[in-house]
Predict the 3D structure of the following.
Amino acid sequence: MPQLPLFEMQPAGLIYAGVDEAGRGPLAGPVVAAAVVLYPDDPIIGVNDSKKLTERQRDKWFDEITRRAQAFAIAKATVQEIDSMNILQASLLAMRRAVMEVEARMRSQDWKLERIHVDGNQCPKMDNMECHALVGGDGRDAAIASASILAKVTRDRLMLDMDRQYPQYEFARHKGYPTARHRALLIEFGACPEHRSGFAPVKAVLKRMKSAF
């Protein structure tokens, strides 16, 4: 996958970060975003959208990307932030945090981050930085694909930690997504502090829990 498949008219040497998130759909856990700057003269061949890779492949690529990227950053928005501002705004917040961190790291190397390419159709609010939203970008741009892998692997690992804290929900199995098993466990045990109260299945359970007292 080429690093810049859609923007052939860019000036030579332009530096950009690919940005993506993981975890918009689950009923529990944070949303995680990553920003990745790749070296133009050292492309990472074969990287792809995290959803098209197995867990083992994602873990392998995670190590490869973090070793070879010029800069990367990973950030999150908490369940509390998701509940207070909605999942879209929380996702954009996590993206903004990742971009700001990677921008600072580039600046420490005396490089200027000139713009970002974001998977999807909306950009996080950034001051003095050009942003291109690219639907399906995680399958079309190597930097975005790399960000999708870092975000996905990081979030999955956070959910494994959460599974140890709340084993009754089997977070290691479904990573918080609204599978039939997760929804059944949610009904059986009620919601925990890591469940997103604004999501309909969780909201319904919380309502039942409240009415029981």
